[in-house]
Amino acid sequence: MNSPMVGRNLLGNEGYERLMSRLGSNDQVLLVASHGVHPHVGGDFTPGSSPDRIGLTQNNLSVEMRDLNWLDQNLALQAEGLPQFDAVNLFRVGGNAGFNPGAEASLKLHVELARNHLVSDSASFKLPVQFSGDLFETVEIAETPESSRQPVWMGLWQERWCRLHFWSPV
Questions:
Q1: What's the predicted TM-score (pTM) here?
Q2: How many C-beta atoms lie closer than 10 Å to residue 154's C-beta?
């Protein structure tokens, strides 16, 4: 939703500006919508919390997802031709671990069906998440000083080359 092209198309200009004004400078927002028998959040889902049915992973690490609870009469989906959804949520993703929207990730849906009060069946489904490269500006990563710096032990030996050279047995 952070991309102006996506955010403005789904929320309209005013809605997108309202969303971006409420976000921090490094916050990433993901919209998840579902329709059908098993929505991505359960009936007991608490707005503003982390969902228990879906999760986001990137580089085999879990990425924090927290519901923003911002979709209401002041901020709603406005795109024409959208299907009717049973559940729509805006999730802030990343947390301390961060989230790179330009890298591959996957959304995992956990489905559990109770057969009776003792036995239940469960299944997990993974959906690859890849955003279009046109939505992002590619930035060249600068080389860190640590990668071009000599190890400390080499500097110590080179500083003492005279002492080592003259004291070494020939």
A1: 0.71
A2: 10
Domain count, the chain: 1
- The answer as to whether 132 is a domain residue is yes
**Structural domain includes residue 160:** no
Domain that holds residue 95: 4-143
Three-state secondary-structure class, residue 111 = strand
**Interatomic CA distance for residues 99 and 26, integer angstroms:** 10
Edge-to-edge strands of the sheet including 105-114? Answer: 28-34, 87-94, 61-67, 54-58, 105-114, 120-129
Q: Please state, as a whole number, how many other Cβ atoms lie within 10 Å of the Cβ of residue 125.
A: 11
Contact 56, 106 (CB under 8 A): yes
At 130-166, the pLDDT tens digits run 888 777 776 777 777 767 777 888 888 788 777 766 6
Look at residue 169 and tell me if it is in a domain: no
